[in-house]
Write a structure and sequence with these properties.
There is one protein chain. The chain has five helices and eight strands; from the N terminus they run βαββββαβββααα. By secondary structure, it is an alpha/beta fold. The chain folds into two domains: about 70 residues, 2,3-Dihydroxybiphenyl 1,2-Dioxygenase, domain 1; about 90 residues, 2,3-Dihydroxybiphenyl 1,2-Dioxygenase, domain 1 (Roll), CATH 3.10.180. The strands form two sheets. Strands 1-4-3-2 form a four-stranded mixed beta sheet. A four-stranded mixed beta sheet has the order 5-8-7-6. Helix 3 crosses helix 4 and helix 4 packs antiparallel against helix 5. The termini are far apart.
Length: about 160
């Protein structure tokens, strides 16, 4: 186990979520699945309790903790993309697998985890901190999935 691991709470589908992430994102994998040694509040002995996995190189522990806590946008994975094709691929995988669109490059997967699918052209524009950043920001504010060509056009004015 990594020294620092993000723990993500799921109702009961940590394994399914981890497998989806491993299939969707490069440098992602399911490492270990641990089963409950006895009954617990939201499950029985032998149920999947935790899943060790990585998402784009980030160590995670999926915990099947039951329905007590719900996900919010206060936690999200941010995935940097190189172009529109990569942006579309990740966005469509998440939204097309029971997820939902949100604003400004955000979406949620079917388990309620928030994702920011962020093309590097947008990040680079915002880092400028000048009129180029303002134009890119204003363009982004009108989008759900980020449109790389529209951001590039906004950068140029």
């Amino acid at each position: 186990m990594a020294k620092n691991t993000i723990c993500v709470w799921y109702d009961k589908d940590a394994e399914a979520a981890a497998r989806f992430y491993a299939e969707t994102f490069p440098d992602s994998a399911v490492q270990d699945i641990f089963h409950a040694p006895s009954d617990f509040a939201s499950g029985k002995k032998g149920d999947v309790l935790t899943v060790l996995f990585t998402v784009a190189g980030v160590a995670c522990l999926g915990l099947n903790g039951g329905p007590a806590f719900k996900h919010t946008e206060a936690f999200s994975f941010q995935i940097a993309t190189e172009d529109q094709a990569e942006t579309d691929r990740y966005w469509n995988a998440i939204v097309g697998n029971g997820g939902q669109e949100s604003a400004c490059g955000w979406c949620k997967d079917r388990w309620g985890i928030s994702w920011q699918i962020t093309p590097r052209v947008l990040t680079e524009a915002l880092a400028k901190g000048d009129e180029e950043a303002r134009r890119a920001f204003e363009a982004m504010m009108e989008m759900t999935k980020i449109d790389v060509a529209a951001i590039e056009k906004a950068r140029k004015g």
